[in-house]
């Protein structure tokens, strides 16, 4: 069976041996095994009972990134804190594709009060031998224009973040959240981590490369419809401040997150927006 749902987790398996697991809570990808290796990081302290967004994998950020003073939603919005419907298998040949859905009428009263638009989200997850594609479609079912942010908050698993580099961000303007949101220009060919990093790179190229170690292992990111890219590692102090994250786990992860977060996405009534990423192991 290419796709099986059990205990609110959908597991996709591919003939090559690759697999992916998606929790219905947040439609959060919580595992991606390709070429016999787990490629995503999920904290050993992650809370998996639906009481809090899952710390790791690919949390789905919608309709806001961070917090917005005029929108009373928790950080990163409600998509990653809601139970999605599993809509079944779409294709099962050399790729396995499944779909998940979230509609406005599935939100809590508080969430609807904070963000009252009528909408339908559809999230497709597609697995091949060496790639994982995650795409979001937003349908505005409202009578007026909707504005939103969205982002795939991908946690990559690494052996030692000191060996990691992200290529493709040179010359981009970024907002540095570690420096009170000050904007600068990236001067490096390879972005590395030797302390807390929390940067929103604006108008990033659609192809990025994550060197997950210094032995030539890479994950290629191809984003579509998503304008920006966030790079995040909490490092020592922030790691200690997260109850669902081990104090030393910052050594074993890097977030490279494609999204449209620097500006609002404007979606007219009845219109559909889509965006996402394809991750490929080399
Ligand atoms: O994407 C980076 C970021 O916005 C950081 O500022 C940090 O807050 C991280 O997301 C984790 O946020 P969370 O709400 O999942 O603890």
Automatic annotation (TrEMBL):
Keywords: Isomerase
Source organism of the structure: Hesseltinella vesiculosa
Superkingdom, taxonomy of origin: Eukaryota
Lineage per the UniProt record: Eukaryota, Fungi, Fungi incertae sedis, Mucoromycota, Mucoromycotina
Pfam family, one: Aldose_epim
Entry-linked InterPro entries: Aldose_1/G6P_1-epimerase, G6P_1-epimerase, Gal_mutarotase_sf_dom, GH-type_carb-bd
EC number annotated for this UniProt entry: 5.1.3.15
Biological process per Gene Ontology, one example term: carbohydrate metabolic process
Active site: 153, 257
Assigned GO CC terms: cytoplasm
Name of the protein in question: Glucose-6-phosphate 1-epimerase
Family membership: Belongs to the glucose-6-phosphate 1-epimerase family.
PANTHER family noted in UniProt: APOSPORY-ASSOCIATED PROTEIN C-RELATED, GLUCOSE-6-PHOSPHATE 1-EPIMERASE
Function: Catalyzes the interconversion between the alpha and beta anomers from at least three hexose 6-phosphate sugars (Glc6P, Gal6P, and Man6P).
């Amino acid at each position: 069976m290419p796709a099986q749902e059990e205990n609110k987790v959908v597991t996709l398996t591919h003939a090559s041996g690759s697999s992916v697991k998606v929790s219905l809570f947040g439609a959060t990808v919580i595992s991606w095994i390709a070429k016999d290796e787990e490629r995503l990081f999920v904290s050993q302290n992650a809370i998996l009972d639906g009481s809090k967004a899952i710390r790791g994998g690919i949390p789905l950020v919608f309709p806001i990134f961070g917090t917005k003073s005029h929108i009373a939603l928790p950080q990163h919005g409600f998509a990653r804190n809601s139970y999605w419907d599993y809509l079944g298998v779409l294709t099962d040949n050399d790729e396995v594709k499944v779909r998940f859905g979230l509609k406005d009428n599935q939100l809590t009263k508080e969430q609807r009060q904070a963000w009252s638009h009528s909408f339908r989200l559809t999230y497709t997850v597609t697995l091949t031998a060496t790639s994982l594609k995650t795409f979001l479609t937003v349908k505005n079912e409202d009578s007026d224009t909707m504005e939103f942010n969205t982002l795939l908050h991908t946690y990559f698993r690494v052996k030692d973040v000191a060996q990691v580099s992200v290529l493709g961000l040179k010359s981009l303007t970024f907002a540095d959240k570690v420096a009170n949101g000050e904007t600068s220009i990236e001067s490096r060919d390879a972005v590395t981590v030797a302390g807390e990093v929390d940067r929103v790179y604006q108008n990033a190229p659609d192809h990025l490369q994550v060197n997950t170690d210094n032995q030539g292992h890479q994950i290629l990111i191809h984003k579509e419809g998503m304008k920006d890219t966030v790079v995040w590692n909490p490092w020592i102090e922030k790691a200690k401040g997260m109850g669902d994250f081990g104090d030393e786990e910052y050594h074993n992860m890097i977030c490279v997150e494609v999204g449209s977060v620097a500006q609002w996405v404007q979606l007219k009534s009845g219109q559909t927006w889509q965006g996402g990423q394809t991750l490929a192991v080399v």
